[in-house]
Records
---
Amino acid sequence: MRVPVSWLRDYVDLPATLDVKELADRLTSLGLKLEALEVVGTDVSGPLVVGRVLEFESEEHSNGKTVRWCQVDVGEAEPRGIVCGADNFAHGDLVVVSLPGAVLAGGFEIAARKTYGHVSDGMVCSARELGLGDETGLHETPGIIVLGADDAQPGDDAATVLHLRDDVIEFEINPDRAYALSVRGVAREVATAYGLDLRDPAANQAGAVAGDGYPVSIEDPGGCDVFVALEVHGIDAAAPSPRWLARRVQLAGMRPISLAVDVTNYVMLELGQPVHGYDKARLRGPIVVRRARPGEKLVTLDGAARVLDPEDLLITDDRGPIGLAGVMGGAETEMSGATTSVVIEAAHFDPVVIARCARRHKLPSEASKRFERGIDPTISQVAARRVAELLVEHGGGRIAETATVVGTPKRPEPITIDAQLPSRVSGFAIGDDEAVDALRTVGCDTSLEGGRITATAAPWRPDLTDPSDLVEEVLRIVGYDRVPSVLPAAPAGRGWTKRQRLRRRVGLALAASGYVEALVSPFVGERDWAALGLGVDDVRRAALRLANPLSEEEPLLRTTLVPGLLRTLARNVSRGRTDLGLFELGSVFLPGVAGRPKAPSLGVDRAPTVDELKELEAALPDQPLHVAVAVTGSRGAAGWWGPARPSSWADAVEAAREIARALGVHVRVEAAQQALWHPGRCARVLLGDSVLGHAGELHPRVCTAYGVPPRTSVVELDLDALMQQAPDIVVAQRFSSYPVGKEDVALVVDSSVPTADVEAALREGAGALLESMRLFDVYTGEQAGEGKKSLAFSLRFRAPDRTLTDAEIKAARHGAVALAAQRFGAVQRG
C-alpha cells in the first residue's frame, strides 16, 4: 500500500516540520511493515512555472518537421519566445514552462539555445518530461500538458499546481491489517502514533439514503450480506479527472484512466471499500447476487473469457453473469465515453469466497485483495455516496434521491478477557485502565468490570476474534519496546542426543564421499505421482493435503524425498553442472492411521503441560526421517590417468552401504522391482527382514519427466529405522600388524541366485579370520554354462595376534566355499 503523506494530512494535523523517516518508524512500531520511502518529483528542479500561450506560428522545415514558434506569458514583463514541436495546444491555453536553469526528469538541463532559426528561451513541457508518465489523467491527449482555465495564472509555481512533489510511504500490509489497505486506516494509525485527532473521512461523509433504487436481490446471503446500489444520471463520463485526484491515484500506485474509473479507485484507496460502476443503459433487468450455474461463462474487464465454477459468487442480470463478485466486473456492462447513467455498487462479500474465486481464476485485483482480508461492512452507503458526489462534482449530472440497500452488516461478538492477561503474556506490568485505553484507541467498545475486560471490535477490525487478538492490540499500542529482554536460563549441557549424533554422522559420511547436501521444499503435487510412475494403489500417493498451500500446484506434503531432489538435480544440470551427486536428510509425512485427534489450541501465557504435549503429538502425522542420494554424470574425472568413470546404479547401492557403515550397521542388498526405478537395475536394501528402501537406476520415463540425464541413479532409505538399530558408538575394527593372507575364489552358481546371498554365505563360512571380501568379477559367458554365472571374490585373512599359517588360511577358505556349495550348489572354478 503506497500512501502519499499529503493525503494523510487531510485527516491528521501532522507537524509542518514532519520527518517522514520518523513517521515511518512510528508506524512500523505499531505493526505496519515499512517497504520503502520515496520522495517523488525531486528529479525535477529549478524554475518551473505556468505560462499562457499568447500566439504562435507554425513553421515547416527542410527535415520535414513542423514546429511552432510561440510567445508565452510566464508572469514576467515580457513574454518569452519558445520553440515547441507539439501541436495539441491553442491560443490562450495554460501550459507548463521550464525556464533556463531547470533540470527535468532524467537529468535534462534547460538552457536558452538556438534551434530551428530561433533562440528558444525555455521549454513547454509534456508529462513524460516531468516524470509523470504518458497517461496520468492530467491531460486529454498525449503531448504538452494543457491546464484548465481556473487552475492557475501565468507565473504560478507549476510544481504546486501539478502536485508534482510528495513523500510516499509504501507498506507491506499483513493479512490481519486489512484496514491499512486504505488511507483512512493508515491515517488512524498516524493519529495513534502522534496522539492526534483523526478526521475520519467515513464519519464526515453522508451516506446514501436507503429507499427505492435500482432493483437488487441477494440469493446467497452467506456470500454477500450487504449490497448498495446508487444511481447517478446525466454525467459526462468523458470529462477529465481533476488533477489532484488523478495525481493521488497515481502516487498510490494505480494508473489514472478516466473520470469514472479514477473516482472509484480513489474512494477505494481512501476508505478501503471497493466500488464498481455499471453503465445503466447496458444492464438488463434487476441485479442478482448468486452462485454460478454449470456451464456459465463471463468475459471480464481484462478481455478474458472465463468458465465459471459453481463456487464462484456472481453479479448477474437477466442475461446472466455481469461480474465476478468482489474480483472483477464484466465487459458487457463496462462504462464508456458514451455512458450518461451509472449504477454504483458498494457491497460486502465473504472474504473466503472472494479469496478462493480470485485464486481459482488466477485473477488477483485491488478489490479482491481488500475483500479477502475483510473490509468494514458498515461503510457501503458512505462509499457509494462519496463516489456519486465526486462524479457529479467533476462530470455533471445528478444523484438519485434514494439508493437500494439490501442486507445489514453483522455485529461483532464481544470478547471477554482477564484484565491481567496482557501482563502475563508480555512479562511486564500493564495496568487495567491502560489496557482498556489501548483497546479503545483501536476502536473497540470496551468496558472493565470485576477485573475482566469486555471488548467489541470496531467494524473495520474483523480480525479481532479471540482473547489473543486483544492482547496483541494492547501490546501494540502500549509499545513492544517495553517488553523486557530476558534471556532464558540455559539447561545443563547434555550434548547432542543419540539421534542427532547419528544423523550428523550420516551427513558427514556422505559429504566425505563427494556428495553435496541439498535443502529441498517438502511440498509436492499430484503431477509428481504421475512423473514417478506410481500406481493408483501405491502407498506413496496417500499424502496429506495442506489447507492453505503456498502453491496450488504443490498442495501435498511429501511421502518421498525423490521429487524434490530430482528437481534440484535438474536445476543444477540446466546450469551446466553435469557431474553431480546430491543428498538430502529430511522428514517425509505419512497419514498413518485414520481418525487422528484434532490438535488442541493452547494458550501463550504458560508452557504446555505434559498431557497437552502428548495431545499435540498424537495429532501430528508420522514424520520418519529419510535419506536420499541422487547421482548423475561422472563419478571419476577424466585425466592423464584415463577416461572418466560414469556413475551407475552401483553407485546408488554403494551409497546405501556407506550410510549403513557410518552407523555401524550391516545391510543386505538384493535385486527387486519398485516403481520409479529401472526394473532391471533396482535393488532393495534390507536390515534383517525389514526393507529400508531401494537403490538403483531411475526408469527412463522418470528421467524424462524431471528433465534429468538418462541413467541417473537414486537411493532412498528410512534413516529412522536404520538409526534404531545403530549402536551409540561404532567400535573401530582392531588393527593388526601381522601379515595378510590373500585368497581368490571363483564360484559358479545359478543366475537366479542373488550375489549378496553368496557373499553372505562366504563371509559366514570363512569365520572370524576373514578381514575383508570384495567381488571383483562377474562372468556369464559360455564357460560358465547356460543359466549360470561365475562370481569371483577376493578374500583377505588376518589374525590380530599372530601370523596365519597356510593351513589356517586354506581351512578358512575351504569353510567359506563349503557353505556356499551347501546353500546354493556353488561349484568352484579352477
---
Amino acid sequence: MRSSQQLIKQFFHLLVGIILCAQTLTAQQTAGALRGQVTDQLGAVIVGAKVTLVDARGDIRSAQTNGDGNYAVGGLPPGLYTVRALAAGFANYENTAVEIIAGGHVTFDIKLNATIAEQKVTVPERDPVTTEPHNNAGAIVLRGKDLDALPDDPDELANALRALAGPSAGPNGAQFYIDGFTGGRLPSRDMIREIRINQNPFSAEYDRLGFGRVEIISRPGTDKFHGNSAFGFSDDSLNSRNPFALNRAPYQSRLCGGNLSGPLLAKRATFFIGASRRELDDNAVINATVLDPALKITPFSLAVVTPRRFTDLSPRLDFQLGPKHTLSARYSFSRSGLENAGIGEFSLLSRAYRTASTDHIVRLTENAILSARAVNETRFQYIHSRRKQEGDSGATAINVLDAFLDGGSQIGRAFNAEDRWELHNYTTWSLGRHTMKVGGRLRGVHLTDSSPTNFGGTYTFAGGTAPQLDNLNQIVLGADGQPKLTTITSVERYRRTLLFQQQQRAPADIRGLGGGATQFSIAGGKPEAGATQVDFGGFFHDDWRLRQNFTLSLGLRYESQNNIADHNDLAPRVAFAWSPWMSKSGPPKTVIRGGLGIFYERFSENFTLKSRRYNGANQQQFVVSDPSILDLFPNVPSTSLLTAFALPQPIRRVAADLRTPFTLQTAISLERRLPRNFIVSVSYLQARTLHMLRSRNVNAPLPGSGARPLLYIGDILAYESSGIFKQHQLIVNTSQRLSTNLSLIAVYTLNQARGDTDGAPSFPANMYDLHGEFGRSVLDVRHQFFLGGSINAPWGITFNPLVVLRSGAPFNITIGRDANGDTLFTERPAFANDLTGPGIIVTRFGAFDPNPVAGQSLIPRNYAQGPGFFSVNLGVRKRVGFGSSSQTAATLGQGNNPPANHCAAADRPYGLTFAVQAQNLFNHTNPGVPIGNLSSPLFGRSNASAVGGFSFGSSAPATSNRRIEAQVIFNF
C-alpha cells in the first residue's frame, strides 16, 4: 500500500504537469470581464439573481449575484454579448448590445422590475450545459415549486435531502451548509430560497467532498411587504398503523407559522422574519422479547406517546451600508423538548427520560466591492447551544442483549453547553481569463459536558453455550451420561438466572445451569468534562478559461487543527470542463468534466471530550466479568468492593500517531443536452480514504495466553487512524423542464463501498488481527433511485411527487458474547463446516459456528444484507386568489376592459393555498436494519420501521406506515 505522503507527492506532480500543459494551450487573445450590481426599481439589491451572457457563437457564461447583489464574469473574448437577468418575483431582463473590449473590464448594472411576489410562480429553465465549473449538470438545484415536494419539518427535511444527495462519495455522508456556514439547525422550508446539492464538487473553497454537499440559502427581505401564515394538521385517524406495533397510540401533529418581509429603510434596508411552532404527539414503538410474571419468554410490543415541541424564530436584516458595502444579519432562536425519550425498540418504559434544548445563532455577512475586478466577502457565525437530559439514574439497568433493556435510564441530570464560532473571509477577482478566489475559515468550539451516565450500574446478559434443559428445567444427559450442551439466547440466560435464584440455588449452581450475568459495568467520579478545539482552513482557487470550450480549475487547500499531532494537511484540487464539439448556432450540447482532489476529515471534538472524561482520573469506569462480582445480581457492588478487587479501569485515548483521515477522489462526467429540454449527466466517481478512524482495545488479552501487554493496566480503548475505505459510484442524473407546468429530476446511483472500519465508534472482532475486517461498508447500498418534481395540472392544482427506491444496506452478524475477554461483543462466527456439529446455528443467511477455534476463518464483516426501501411521497396544492392586482386595478381605473386572464389565481395579491402532503402514499412496509446478534431471539428480524437518511422523518415511521398532513396557507 502506498503511503499518504507518496499519494500527495504524486498528486502534486500531476498538478504541475497539467498546469504546464495548459499554459501551452492558452490563447494569445486578451480576455475581458463584466461585472455589476442587480437591483430593483427602488434601488434595493437583489440577492441570488442569475445573470447570463451569450456571445455571437451562442457560448453561454453565467453567474449569480452575491449577498450585496453583485455579479462578476471573467475570461470573456472581445465582442458583443446578450445579457439576461432572471430572479424570482421580477420580470425577465435582456440587453442585446453589451460590448466587451480586449482586456477591458466593463461595469454593467441591471435594474429589474418587480412583479407581485408569491402569486406568480415561475419555473426557470434548467441551465444549458456549459463549461462553467459551478454549472455542472450533475448538480441538483431546487427552487420555487420544486421545494414544495419537501417536508416542512426541519428534521424530516434533513432526512429527505440526505436521500436526495444519495450515498455520497466517501465514508462520512452528506454535510449541510446554511448560508455558507456549517452547523446549526436547518430552517423550515418556507424560510429557504434555494437548495443546491453536489454543485462544483472540486472547489478548494470547501473542506468536505463536493458529492454529498447540501447548500441551503435562506430568503432575504423584499422591497415591498409580503408574507404568509400557515397551519398544518395531522391525526392518527388519517394515518395507517405501524406494522411493528400491536396497539395504535394517539398521534397528532399541529404546525403554525409564517413569515413577513418588507422594507425597513427606503432603498437602504429590508427585513425578513419567520416563526413557527410545531407540536407533535409522536409515538415510539417498543418491540422486544421479555419475561412474563411466570418467567415465560414472550414477545412484547407497545406504542407509546412521546410528545415533542419545537419553537423557531428567525429574523433577518439586509442593509445597504454604502454604494460598495452591504451587510446581512440573521438571528435564529430555537427551542425543543421531548418527553419519554429513550423508549423504543428494545428499551422498555422504565428507560424513559426527558430532554430540552435551546439554540441561539447569529450570522453576519458583509460584502464589499474592492474594485471593478474584486469583491470581498466576510462572514461570522456564533452558535450558543444548551442541552439538558433528566432521567432516573438510581435503578440498576438490565441489558439483555438484543432482547430488552430495563431498569433505570442511567441518564441522571445531564447537561451539555456548546459555544461554536466561525469566521470566513473570501476575495474573488477577475484577471483576464482567470476568475480567482482566495480565503480562509477559522472555526472553534468549546464544550462543557456533564454526564453521570451509568452511575447506577448496568448488568449485561449475553447468550452462549449452556446445558440443555427439559420442560421441567432439568439437565438433559447424553448417551455418555454427560450434560448435553446447546446454544442459548441472552433472554434464556436471564430467565435461568431469575428462575434458579427463586429456587434459592447457590450462585455456582446457577452458573453451572446456564444462568448468571455476563458483565457488570458502572461509572463514577466527576461527571463534568470539557474540550476546546480550533481548526483552520485556507485556500486558493483559479477557474482558468483557456479556450471557449475548455475551462481548467486549479486549487490548493491547507488545513490544521489542535488536539492531534497531525497539523499540516495539504489538499490540492484540479478539475476541467471541456466541450469537444462547439456549435456556432448555439450553446454546446456536450460537456465532459473531470476532477481529482484530496479532502480531509477533521477529528471531532467529541472524541477529544471522551478521551478526557475517561482518562482514568476524572471519571472512573469499571467493567467486571469476575463471577464473584456478577453473582451479586441484582445488587450493585460497592465501590470499596470493586476497589478491593483492584480492578483496572478502562481508559479512552487518542493514539499518539493519529493522522487526519483524507479521501482521494476522482470523477469523470459526461453531460448531454437532449431534445425536449432534457439534460442528462452520467458520472463515475472513485474514492479512496486512508487513515480512516476506528476504535481498538490496545491492551486486550492476547490470544492464547490471555495475558495483557500492559499487565497492570486495564482496557485501553484508543482512537486510531488505521482504516481504509474504497468506493465506486456510477450516477445518472437527468432533469427536464418542458414548460412552467412540468419539472422533473431523476437520479440513479450504482454504488459499491468496501472498507475495514465503519468509523471511529466501531471495533474490530479481533483486536490483534485486522486482516479479516476488510469487507462491505455500511454505505454499500448498491442501488438507489430518486424522482422528484412539480406538475401543474388543470384548475390550478399542483402535484409534487417524490419517490425513493433503494436496495438493502449490509449489517454485521455477531455471536453476541465476549469470547476473548476484551469486554466487547464484536466477535463474529465462522461458517459451519459440519451442520451436525455442536452449537451450529442455521439461518436464512447461512449456517454459522458461534464457537470458532483458532485458525478457523470468520465470516466477513457486514456479511448479511437488510431489506430494501420504497416510498412514494405526494404533495397536492391548490391556490385560490382574491383581490385585484396593481395592473388590473390600473386598467380598470382608466376605464378599459380588464385582460381576459385577470381572474387567474396567480395574479391575485392575496391567496389561500390548500395543501395535502402524503408520506409513503402506498402504505409500503419498510423494515429497519435486522438484528445481527445470533444470541438474540429476534436474530435476522427487524423490530422497527426504517428511519434515518432514506425515510422522511425519524418520527413518521414510528408513528405510522403512511402519514397524511393537511395545511392551509394565507399569503399576500
---
Amino acid sequence: METNQAGALRNAIGSALAQHQAGRLAEAAAAYRQILVVDAKNSDALHLLGVVQLQRGQFDAAIDLIGKAIAIDPAYASAFVNRSHALQGAGRYAEALADCDRVLAIKPDLADIHSNRGNALQGLHRYEEALASYDRELAVQPGHLGALYNRGNALQNLHRYAEALTSYDRALAVKPDFAEALYNRGVSLQSLERNEEALASYDHALAVKPDYIEALSNRGRVLQSAKRYTEALASHQKVLALRPEQVEDLVNCSRLHDLLGDTQMALAGARCAWGLQDSVLTRSNLFAILKKCRFSASNPEIEALAIRAMSEPWGRPEEAFDAMLSLVRLDKAVEACMKRASGAWPEKLSARELFPAGSLNAVAKCRPLLCLLESVPSRDLDLEKFLDAARRAVLDLCGDADGAPAMDEEGLVFCCALAKQCYINEYVYSCDDAESSRAQALRDRLLVRCAEGLPVPALWLTTVASYFPLHTLPAVEHTPGLPWPQAVAGLLLQQVSEPLAERQYRDGVPRLTGVNDRVSLLVRQQYEENPYPRWTRCTAQKKQLPFAEYLKQRFPRAAFAPPGNKRELDVLVAGCGTGLHPIRAAQTYAGARILAIDLSLSSLGYARRKTLELGIGNIDYAQADIMELASTKRSFDVIESVGVLHHMADPEAGWRELCALLRPGGFMRVGLYSEAARRDIVAARKWIAERKGAAGPQDIIKLRHELITVMAAGELASLASTADFFTTSECRDLLFHVHEQRFTLPRINKSLEALGLSLIGFQLPADTLSRYAERFPDDRSMTDMGNWDTFEHQNPQTFRAMYQFWMQKRI
C-alpha cells in the first residue's frame, strides 16, 4: 500500500504538472523545486524542472537537471528525448544523437524519436542520414508536421529544391499558416528561379508573421533580382526598423541605393554596416560603393576611410583609382599644380613655376595623393603630366653643385611617394637629353659620395630613385647617413630589399621543362626585361569556397556536372606572370593545390616574393613552356590560362596541350584577345610600325610620349582610357608585344568543339550580362555562341578586357 509521503509527492507532481501544462512555468518550477526539497532524488521532478528550463531556453541548466534524472533512472526514455532537445539547443548535436540512439534501444516505438534524431543529424550536416530518419518517422506517422517540415530542410541543404518544395507543401497541407514552412518554401522556389512564386510564399509567411525578418530580407532579394529596386529597398528597410543592427540588410540597402543612383545614401549605408561589423562582407561592399564615388566636397572622415580601403586593401586598388583621384583633385594646391603642368605640357615647368612659394609643402599634405602614388600606377594623363613635371622640378631643387639641399619632412615624404610611383610605373615618363644628363650627373655624384663614405642627402637619394631603380646602383642600402627617415626607409625597402629577394627567389625557381620554341624564347625575353604586371597590393584573404559553389555563384544558370567530393583540387595556372592570378585562385578555391608556371624567371621571382609576403603556402612556382608540359606526366582538375595562348606561335596547339592535361570532367578558364575590341590597339600598333618603333624600354617611352601628343589631337583617344597604357611593361604588352593573335567567337567555338569542351559562361560585368539576357531571353544559360557573336557585333567593346570564359571537359 502506498505510503502517505509517496502519495503526497505523487499528488504534488500532478499538481505541478497541471500548472506546467497550463503554461504557468514559474509556478510549475517553484512546485518542482518544493518537491525536490522533500525528495532530492525525485527523477520526475528533476526531469520536469529540466523541461521548464528547456522551454525557457536555458539549455545548460536543462541538460544538468535532466542528466540527474537519468542518473537516477537510466531507463527513463522521455528524459533522454528531452535532454536530446536541450543538447541540440546548446549545439551539442553528437551528444543529442547519442541520446536518441539510447531511446531507440530502450523504447523504439516512442513517438517523434526518429524526427528528433533527424534534427540532430542535420545539426551534424549529415543530411542524407537525417532524411532517412524523417522518412522512418513518416512511415509511422504520415502527417507528422515536424518530420515533413524538417525533411524539406534536409532536402534544401542537399540542394534538391524541387523535392524540398514537395515536402513543404505536404507540411502546409497539415498546417496552412505554418510561417516557417512558407518561408522555406519561398527559399526553394527562389533557388529554382521561380521568383514570382517565391515572392507570393514570402508574402503569405509575412501575413501570418508580420515581423518575420528572414522573410522580409529574402523578399527584398527577390525584388532586387527582378529589378524592382524601390520595393526591394522598402522590404530591407522594414527589416532595419525591426532590427537596426541587421548588417546584411544594411548592405543590401546600400547596394539598392547605389542601383537607384543615390550614391550618397549608398555610401552612408555601407559605412553604417561596416561600423557595426568590420567583416569581409562590409569591407567589400564599402569598397564597391567607394570605387564608384566621384567626390565633390572634402570630408576628412571619408578621406581616411578611402585611404584605409585602398591601402589594406578591401578590393582591387586599381579599381578605386578614379575615386581616389577625385579626392586628390579636391585639394586646391594639387589641382593648381596639375593645371599648371597640363597647360605647359609638353614643356616642363621649373621648380619655381610648378611650385610657387610654399606650394610643394601644401601638395605634400594631400594624403589621398600620397596613398595613390604608393598604391597603383597613375592612370590619368593630367596627373601624369603633373608628376612628370614634379620629378623634373625636384631635380631642379637638387641643383648641380655638390651641396646638401635641405628638404623638410613633409616635402621629403612627397618625394619618396613620387619615387615609388616612378618605380611602380617602371619609369614610363619621358625626359629630354638635358634632363636625362642632369639625372645621370646627380646619380654619379651620389655614387661618388657612397664610394668615399660621405653622407648622402636624403633628397638626392629620393630624386635619383625617381629616375633609376636603386637596386641597380651598388651598395646604396649601406650609404652613410643611416638611420634614414621612415619614408626613405620604405623607399629602400621597395627599390633595394625587395628586388634583392626577388633575385634570390628567381634563382631558386625549378625548371620543369625547357623553352625551345622561337616565339616562346622571344616572349620570355620580353617578360624577363619587363615582368608583367607589376602590382603592389592584393585584396585581403576572402572566404574560400568549394570549387563547385564558386562556379555556381558566378554562373547561377549554367549547366555543368559538379566535380566529385574531392577534398583537394589540383589547379594549374599556365602563364602566371607576377603571381596575382594564382594568388587570387589560392584565396578563392577551398582545398586547392596550385602549380603556377611561366616562361619568365623574373616574373616568377616577383610572384614568389609576393606570395610569401601574403603567407600563402599552397602555390608551387616553376618555369615551363606550355608546349612541353606533357613531359611532366601531370594532370589537373582545373586549368586556367588567361592572356597567354594568344601570344603563342600556334594558340590552338597550346590549347590542345593544356586540354590533354585536364582530367575528364575537369574545368578550364581561358582568356583571349578579341579582334573586334582591339581595333584601336591594332591601329596604334600600325602607327608604331610605320615609325619603325623598336621595343626596348627607352624606345617604348619615347614612342608612347609621341602617342600622347597624337591622342591629344583626337586620334587614338581611346588609349587614354586603357589602363595598360600607363606603365612601361603594360604598354609594352599592349602595343609592342613580340607576338600577338586575336580571336573571334566563331574561331573560339570551333576550338571548343574540336577539344570536347562545353562552355559554362563568360566572365563579364553584371550589367553586360543583364543586357545580354534582355537581348536573348531564350538563352537562359547564356552559352549560345551565335547569340554572343551577334551581341559583340552590336557592342564591339563587350570583350575589351579579353574573352574570358569557363569550360568543362566532356567525359
---
Amino acid sequence: MTLLPTGTVTFLFTDVEGSTKLWERDPRAMSQALSRHDELLRNAVEAYGGFAFKTVGDAFYVAFSNAPQAVEAALDAQKSLLSEEWEKACPLRVRIALNTGTAEERGGDYFGPTLNRVARLLSAGHGGQILLSHSTQELVHDELPLGAGLRDLGVRRLKDLFGPEHVFQLTAPELPASFPPLKTLDVRLNNLPIQPTPLLGREREVAEISALPRRTDVRLVTLTGPGGTGKTRLALQSAAELIDEFEDGVFFVALTSISDPELVTSTVAGALSVSESAGRALKEDLKDFLGDKELLLLLDNFEQVVDAAPLVGELLSVCPGLKALVTSRTLLRIYGEHEYAVSPLELADPRHLPPIERLRHYEAIGLFVERARAAKADFSLTNENAPAVAEICARLEGLPLAIELAAARIKLLSPQAICSRLGDPLKFLTGGARDLPERQRTLRGAIAWSHALLSEDEQVLFARLSVFSGGCALEAVEAVCDAKGDLSVDIFEGISSVVDKSILRQEGSEEPRFVMLEIIREYARERLEAGGGAEEIRRLHAAHFLALAEQGESRLREPEEATWLERLDIEHDNMRAALSWTLQSEEPELGLRLAGTLWRFWWMRGHYSEGRRWLEEALARDGRASAARAKALEAVGWLADDQGDIDRAVAAAEEGLRISARAEIQSSVTASFIRMLGSAAYVRGDHEQAAQLFEESLTLSREVGDEWSVASSLLQLGNVSGDRGDYEEARKFYEEGLALARKLDDKALLASALISVGAEFLLQGDHNRGAMLNEEAAALYRERGNRGHLQYALDNLGWAALMRGDHEQAVALHRESLALSRQLGDKLVGAEALEGLACSASARGEADRVSRLFGAAEALREAVGYQQEPRERALREPYLAAARPRLTEARWDAAWAEGRRLGFEESIAYALENEKLTS
C-alpha cells in the first residue's frame, strides 16, 4: 500500500470550469473528454511523485511531499490540457490551486483547514489558471520550473471568510497571460466580517440556503433555530457564496447590541454608510439608497427587535433589487418570508461507531476535533478516545456551541473525563471566548436569551413542557400542561410561539409532534422546579400516559396492532419518564398499573429485561394485594418465563393465585397464572402436572369466554400431547388452537401457534411443513417489527435447514436466533441455538467445538431446570456420534467441562465470534 505524504503537505486541487453546462450540452462528448482529461492529469501527477487521494466528478485532489514538484506537476498538467485538441462541444478549461500546510491523514483521506483553504482558493480562479497560496509561494519562489514566474495578485479575501490570503498566479510562456478578476470577496462591495475559524462541514446547508435567494420568487430567507446551532456562521458563509449574484454587494448588519426596534433603521443605515438628510426621515433616505440597487442584506439576531419586521417588508416592497437573509430565533411573520430551520450537526451513533477513518466525516466529531486542537495542539482522534468524543457529541445533540464549549475543556480534561462531567451540561459548559457576546459564552446564556423572548404565560408553558421525554403530541400538551385551565394563553397559540422562538421544534405534518433538545429541556426543568407545581404536572403526565397505555393494551390484540405498537414506540420515553416519577413519588400504585399495562408491548418489542426491571421495582414499592399487583405479577411472570427464569415465574404465579383467592381479580388473570404454572411444569418435564394445569386453565377460560386464553391453553396442551406421543390428540388441540388464533386475527398469537405446530412437524421428521409454518410465523413477526418469540421461529428454521443438509443456512439462522436470544435474555432458545451451531460444527469435523457448545447448552438448561425431550435429543445424537470419535475421551470431557463453565453471555460470545472464523 502506498504511504501518503504526512507532516507538511502541498495539496493540488483541480476542477473543470463550467462542467455542468458542458454535460448538458453534449453528454457523450463530455464523457470522452473527461477520460482524456483524467489521463493527462494522472500522467502529470505520477511523473512528479504526487498521490491522487480522491477524485470527485471532474475534480482531482492530490498530495505532494515536495512543493516544487507539485508546481512542476501543475504546470505540466496545464500545458498538456491547454494543448489538447478538444471537440468543439467540450473545450475543457481546468483551474488549478496549490496550498501547503499540515493535515490529518486517515484511511487514505485528509482532513483539516489546509484542505478547506485550497478548495476556496480553487473556487476563486478561472479555467487555464494556476493559483498558489502564500505558504506554497514561500517554498517554491527560488525553485520554479524553467521559464516560469509568479505574478502577485495581492492579498485577497476568499469566500471561506477565514482571514485574507496572499494569492499568486503561476506564469509561463505556454499559459494564458490574462484572466478576469479573481472571484473573491473583494470583487463586490461587502462588509462581511473575517471569521476566527473556518466553517467545518455544513456544505449541504450552505448550498440549500444560498440557492434560495438565487430564485426570482424568493426575496426574504429567515434562518431559525435555538441558540448555539450556528445560524450566524451559516448565514455569513451563504452570503459569501452569493456575493457574485449582487452587483451592489452584500452587507452584514449586526443587531446583537440593540434591543429597541426603533434603532433598526439607523443600524441598517450605518452598515450601508447612509446618512440622514436634514429635515427628512432616515427611512426615506434608506429607501432612496436601496431603490435601484441589487444588494443582499444579512440581518443577524433579529429576534430581539422582531417588532421592526415591518421595516424589512417595506424595504423589500419598494426596492426590487433588494433581498434579505435573516438569522432569528423567531420568524418575522411578514409576507414572502421563507423559513430555513437550522438543524444540529450530523452525529455518529456511539453504540455503533464506524471505523475511525470514517468517524471524522461526521460534522459534530469534526468540529470537536478542530476546536480541541485549537485548545491543545497535539490532540487527535484515536481508537481510545473516539467512543468518548462520539458520546460527548451525542449527549450534546450536535449543538455547535455546546460542542465548542466542551472541546475547549480538552486542555485540562480528557474526552473521557469531559464525558463523565456532562451530567449537568448547563453548569459545565461555560467559558466561551471573551470576544463573543455574553449569551454565547455559556450554554445557559444562549438558552436564557431565547427564554426571555417568551411572554410570562409562554414561559410557564415552556417549563411544563419539560415533563415530556422524547417529544409530545398536541393532545398530550393540552391534557398535561393546561389540565386546570390556569394558563391564560391558548395552548395552540402558546405552542406556536414557543416553536417560533426556536426552543421547541415541530416534527411531522399530519400529526405534528413537538420536541425539545435535551439541553433545552434541562433548562426548562429548572424553570419548572423554580416556579412550583412540578409534582402536580408530573402526576398529570403520568396519568395521561397511563390512559394511553391502557387504551393501547386492548388494541395490541386487534387488527390495528401495528399502528398501536408504533404509537407506543413513539411514546416509550414518556412512559419511562412516567414510571420513573411514580416509583420515586407517593404514587406507587400508578406506577404498578402502568408497568402492568405495558408488559405486552414490552414482550412484543423484545424489551424483556427492561420490562422486568420496571415491574420488579413497582412490585417492591407497592406490596398491597390488589388487582394492579395481580396484573403486574402476571406480567413479570410471563416475561420471566420467556427468559427461562422458571423459579421467578412460579413465584409470581403462586402469589398471583393467593391474591386472586381474596381479591376481586378477573378469572382470565387467574387462568393465566394457572397456565403459567403449567408452562413451568412442562419445561421441567412433568407432563402429567402440565396437562392438568393446562386443562384447568382451558376450562376456566372457556367459562369466562376468553378466547385468547382458550387458544393459548389449547396450543400448550398440543405441545404436551406431542411430547407424550399422542400425536392424534396433539393434532386436535393444534387445529382448534390454530383456527381460533386465525379467527381472532391476533398476529402474535397466530405466529406463536404456527411455531408450536411447526415444531411438532419438525420433531416428527417433516422438515418441509415445519419450515413452511415457521417461515410464516417469522414473516408475521418481522412485518410488525416484533422481536418477542421471533427467536423461536429462527431456531426452528435452523433445525429444518440442518435436517435437509443445508449447513450454511442452518448456521446463519442459528446465529441470528442466538444473537436475538442474547438481546432478550432467553436462555432456553439460546441453548437450542448453541446446539444447532454445534451440529453444524460436527458436519465440518470440528469436534472440540462441538463438545464445548453442547457443554454450554447443557449447563444453561440445567440452570433453567429444562428437561429435554427424547425426540429433541434424537435430532442431535447423529452429530454427537460423528464428533466423539475425533477426540480422546479425556479431551472430549475436558472441552465439555470448559463449555459448561462459560455461562450465558460467554457461551454466546464464543459461539458467535468463532462461527465467523469457521463458517
